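OP here, attaching both records as promised.
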Amino acid sequence: MINDDIISIKDGVPRIISDEDFDKVQALLNTRKKLDMPRTKEVYLLSSKIKCGECGYKFSGNRKHSGRNKRLHVTYRCNARANKTDRSCDNKEINKNRLEEYTLKILSDIIFDEASMEQVIKNYNEFVQANSSELNNSIKELNGKITAVNRKIENTVNAVAETGNTSLVTMLGSLESERDDLNARLIREENKRKSRAVDTSVIKAAFTQAKQMFESNELEDARQLVNLYIENIIVYNEYVDIEVNVLPFFSDTDDELRDAFKKTISASREEVYIMIYRQ
């Protein structure tokens, strides 16, 4: 089993990709304004993922003009502040573009780092090997229980037919419910085994697909990548935690597998050069 990694970043996310890929990513981040979106309406790429670490409320997008020159500030801010709820919160707003670029930079480090991909594949194989025997034993045990219950059901049906004892009908219903429950559990375990039985070439192909999506510079592709890879973004007054699923294509329906390949990247707001706007 792989433990969650907590990564504290002193000077932002370190550059762990090649110069060519790094320049490509930087060019993409610098030209995000080319995304097909109206100039008069902001698109908040992360709005479904951000939560307040201070009070637990969600963050939502906000536009406002302030200062002598009525400068436009586009941010994410805690809904407890925005809606003036009874639950007071002093969490500061966070610059929208800075947070989105930082999040995409984290995704680029995951998607474009070949060494990281090889390590993920290695970890995946170790996970499957460690858990396959447990799953196989569970499936074998469930099949045995289902066989035994079916035998009891058959015997009970025969007894009802021979004796007409109506009290056995209640027992029959209970046995059928037990069988249905066992069958449902068996299906879940078999689905787990199927979801984990993935050839490593498929994982590599998924990373290649993610690269293509990242390079497309299309808004919908960016949204899909965020939905796939980002579990949560938790904003505190002093720092930000970004929970990443490094193997999203194969762990979205398996809680145990998803937890095994989830890591938290943590950095202070200042370390990732996030500008903070106060009310």
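Record two, same layout:
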Amino acid sequence: MNSNVLKAMPVLLIILGVILSCNKENDDDCSVTVSNLSATYRLTAMKYKQTSNSAEQDYLLLLPACEKDDQIKLNANMSYDYVDAGIICSPPGNDQGTWALNGNTITSNGLLNGTIESFDCTTLILLMTDVNIPGDKLTMTLRKQ
């Protein structure tokens, strides 16, 4: 190797090491915040249990095809848009409203009301209880688009 290259090698290795070791703290921040939750989602699973001992039912299968591809957009200004995307229902199911976040609880004047069971920056799992009868549970899995 050229002697100038050999002299510059330690400096280049240090610069490369600094670049590779830089870790942005917010890159992996999937905490439940308005900023992190604000995105467009699609429902990918919906499971219902009438009691803790009953078999889980796949409620997504019960939805009409025109509702399975809809989008829920949670806006940072605490509004939401429900968009009848893909196959359009008749009449279209578009809707708008507001949502709020209090700790791990989402409330809205629409579809999303419940406790955030998990959030990994891509998948939001929301648990709702007492939907049809006291003690039942509905789990919705929403995936960022």
